[in-house]
Each structure stands twice: as structure tokens, then as C-alpha cells.
Amino acid sequence: MNRENKRKQYQKGYYKTHACDDSFTCRVCGRPVVPAGAGSDHRNHCPNCLSSLHVDDEPGDRAADCGGIMDAIGVWVRKNGEWAVIHRCRRCGVLHSNRAAADDNPMKLMSIAMKPVAFPPFPLERIEELIALMGGDGAVR
């Protein structure tokens, strides 16, 4: 069932209070995605590639007209220790945060989390110099 048919079938805000039990095929990796295994009633991204679609302005409202692919660009940890995935829309650039699902690809989550460490905003060759500027003795231990 495509997004337009969902809008015709359900009232605005329906998915805020009702579980989304629709299966779909990921538009990025092509794998089938089922709601079972997500650990919640609201499956909002592919557990394999972590991609999503821009269908909501607010969680569950299905009000976004964009429909662009949302790429997983980062992760963050909520104060309760739960991980969340940061998505950015390829079409309009909007950012959304979604809970990491129980069956999300752990290697994909870790690769996104480690990207800033792998590509720091300064040359690693300068690390001793930067430490010295901060008042350290400049030795990397």
C-alpha cells in the first residue's frame, strides 16, 4: 500500500495512536521489512540499511508531502541510554530522530557512530601539537 492510499484510508494523526503493522520493501536496499522484531509498534526505518522515507512532519502524522529518502547520518544516546538514529532527507534536508529498533543492523549502527572518530576535523598527524596547545606535554600515551 503506498503513502497516498494510506492518507485516503486513515484520518490525520491515525498513526500517532495506532500501531503501524504494514510491511514494505526498502527503497534503498530492496529488502522486505516487516513490523515484527522492531521492539515497538512503529516501524519507521529499514533494519538492514537504516534508511527511511520522509512521510511525517511530526511522528505519526503522515503529513509530509516530500516522500524523499531519509539517510541515517548519525546516532545519539538518549538520557535513558536508548540509542536513536538521526536521519536526513535527501530531497529537502530535514532532520529527524528515530529510536533504534531492536532488530537494527548493529554493524551499521556502529559504523555510523564511529564515523566522526574515523574522520576527525583535523589531521591526526597534528594530535601531539594540539595536545601541547591545550597545556599537555604533547606526548600521546
UniProtKB/TrEMBL annotation:
It comes from the Bacteria. InterPro entries: RNHCP (IPR024439). Pfam families: RNHCP. Residues 22-110 form the RNHCP domain. This is RNHCP domain-containing protein.
